[in-house]
Design goal:
353 residues, 2 domains, 16 helices, globular
Length: 353
């Protein structure tokens, strides 16, 4: 047993929830961001500015999303160079055969292929042949025989959530907003979850609302402690910066979670905000304004396919209210109440920035 443990340690194979459920998933989201999401933004700019060159570049970026995700996962798992490069093929195969659930298929299959590749890496004199061969064979075979089923399951779950949100927009607005918002602040990837489940439509709008409540909420309620630097670091960066403070005093999380629970159903029932851009945007909140760009991209897509006539003033009003104003106002109200009763104390939200 010790020999196996030492061998795995030597190969930097760490079988753990953190390695696969946090590190690999977060890296996958970055790979997806650097390919599909950037490609979608460039494509939207190209269409709006009548610059075909941007559409062309955006198409290139979007087309390699599977490879980008797999390589990012391999990087997070500290894969050797030959394994890392071979994962491009694995990611392409898993994403293509996984269909709507391609990102989830890439996550599972790239992890397995990377770990098998690491096992044989530098174990033979013909490493340059063996390592890529094992990595690509394992990943491709899993892609052919398993990825379609992973994709079907992910797609079914995502469709079920979106269907339930349409049927029960109030209840599901609360659930989706709170759960995805919490995932955004935890050291896991809300963006990867939304992408894996292809979470769009009303459910995507609720997810966006929850993420905005966490980011804008923490940014505003901690302004006393963190000033302008903290405002931008959390409001445009990530609310994950508060995770250490949450561990010390979980009560500081109450205002943003309550804000998510309120803004979610407002998004689904009143403004009927839909995310019809890239699904990953649903879990990005105000990070780089990617969530808002995703909503705008969805509007453009809807106009192009005839589902929407034009972008109205009410559309913009709803987006601004859900993304910025309501999260800020509601969170501050609750945070001030908690400060007065002593649940949140001075410097509980202080960041080392």
């Amino acid at each position: 047993m010790n020999k196996i443990k030492n061998f795995l340690q030597k190969k930097q194979i760490n079988i753990s929830l953190k390695a696969y459920g946090i590190d690999a998933m977060s890296a996958m989201a970055q790979g997806l961001f650097a390919s599909l999401l950037i490609g979608t933004i460039l494509n939207t700019l190209g269409t709006q500015l009548s610059m075909p060159i941007l559409n062309q570049i955006g198409g290139y970026a979007s087309s390699v999303k599977g490879a980008a995700m797999a390589v990012a996962i391999g990087y997070a798992l500290k894969a050797p160079a030959l394994v890392l490069f071979s994962l491009a093929t694995v990611g392409y195969a898993a994403d293509t055969l996984g269909g709507a659930g391609g990102p989830l298929a890439v996550l599972f299959i790239a992890i397995i292929a990377a770990e098998f590749g690491k096992l044989v890496s530098k174990e033979t004199k013909v490493d340059i042949l063996v390592t890529p061969l094992v990595t690509i064979l394992v990943g491709s075979l899993l892609s052919i025989y398993v990825a379609p089923y992973i994709g079907q399951v992910a797609s079914a779950v995502g469709k079920a959530i979106m269907w339930a949100t349409v049927q029960e927009p109030f209840i599901m607005g609360i659930i989706v907003s709170v759960v995805i918002g919490i995932a955004l602040t935890l050291p896991i990837s809300s963006a990867a979850i939304c992408a894996a489940l292809s979470l769009t439509g009303l459910a995507g709008g609720a997810a966006l609302a929850g993420c905005c409540c966490q980011m804008v909420g923490f940014a505003v309620m901690s302004y006393k402690e963190n000033k302008v630097g903290g405002l931008f670091a959390q409001g445009i960066g990530t609310s994950m910066l508060q995770m250490g403070n949450i561990v010390k005093n979980p009560k500081i999380w109450i205002p943003t979670i309550l804000s998510s629970a309120i803004c979610g159903p407002i998004s689904t029932c009143i403004f009927k905000l839909e995310m019809n851009g890239a699904a990953i945007s649903s879990g990005m909140g105000t990070c780089g304004l990617v969530g808002q760009i995703g909503v705008y991209t969805g509007w453009i897509n809807d106009i192009a396919n005839g589902a929407k006539v034009a972008i109205t003033a009410m559309d913009w009003f709803g987006l601004v209210m859900i993304s910025f104003i309501l999260p800020a106002v509601i969170t501050v109200i609750f945070s001030e109440i908690l400060r007065k009763i002593g649940w949140i104390k001075e410097n509980d939200l202080k960041l080392d920035i």
